[in-house]
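U., I forgot to send this yesterday:
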Amino acid sequence: MAETHFFCLDGPLDSMPTEQQMRIANLSGLPALVRDRGIDPRPILERHNIDILSIRDPDQYVACKAVVNVLEDCAIALNEPLFGLLLAEHQEPDVFGCVTALCRASSTFRQALESFIDYLPVTHSPTTIIELVENDGTAEIRWCVRTDLGRNSQANYQAVMLNIKLFRQLLGPTFCPSYINLAAEPRNKDIQELERHLACRFHSTKAENAIAFPAELLDHPVASANRLLFKLLGGYLEQVRASARVSIKDRVEDYIRSSLPTGNCSIERCAQKLGMSVRTLQAKLGEAQESFSDIMELQRVDLAKSYLKQEQLSLDDVAANLGYSEQSSFGRAFKRWTGLTPKLYRRNHLGMTEAD
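Result:
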C-alpha cells in the first residue's frame, strides 16, 4: 500500500531571522508615508543599507539597528516627534506575520498572549523579550530588547500602537489599556497628543515597556477563535522553534525549500532575503565548506524523492514544486542524480511498499 501523507513538512516553510535581525515588515508603508509628507525616503533607507524595493517583501530580514535608525531619522526629517506612532496607525498587526494569525485563532486572550510571547521572537524578531505579569487584578504585557539599539523611542511608539491594535482585534474595538509605560522621553507638549492616541495614561520609563489592562480580560474569549487553525499553525511554529535552524546552511536550505516552487530561487534572492550581500553569503557558505548550488541540488534530490512517494502528485506537479518549467528538464536531472527516471523511481518505491 502506498504511503498516505495527510499533513507533513520536510522543514520550515521559510528561513527565520537570526539574532539582531527582524522582518522588514516593520517598515511596510513607510516609503509612501514619508513621500506623502514631501520627503524622499530613499536616502534615509540607503543610509542604513536598506533597498526600498525590499520592503515589498515583508518576509525579508534586516538588521534591527537599521530599522530603529530609519524610524528615528524619519522623525527628525519630518519634524514628527511621534513618527513611530503615526506609522503604526497606517499599518496592521499583520506586520507580525503568522504569529498574528495564531493569536486570532486562539480561544482566549490569555492563550493569544502566550502564543505572542512564545513565537514572536521565533518568526519576527529574536532580540525581543516579552512576558506577561499579573498582580493585584492588573495584568501587564511587558517587552524589551536583548541588546542596546541606541535611541529607539520611535520603535517603541510603533510597537505599542501595533500591540494595541492587535489587542483590539482580539478583545473588540473598545479595548483601552489601563496605562502604558514606554522607554521613551517625549517632549512635555507631546504627552497629551500621545495619550490621546493611546487612549490612556502614559508613563516614561528607562528600560522596560508595558501595556496594562484588567487581569479579568485574560479569560475573555476571542471571537475569531479557530481550534483547527490554532492547532496546525501552533504545531508548525513549535517545530520551527524546536529545530533551532540558525546555521548558514540551515537558513539557505529553508530559503531554497520555500522558493523552489516560485521558479525564482537564486543566490541573489537568498542573500537579499537573509539581509546580506551575495559576496558575504558566499563567504559564509565557504567557511562552512558549502556552496549554494550544491545545497540547492541536494534539496531538490530530497524533495523529489519525497514528492514522488506521494501518489496524488503528478510528475508535472513534482517538476513545478522543484522549480522546473518542464517535466523533461526535471526528468533528466533526476536520472543524473539517481540513475532512474522519475516514473521508475515511483514504480519501484510503490512496488516495495506493496510487497511489504
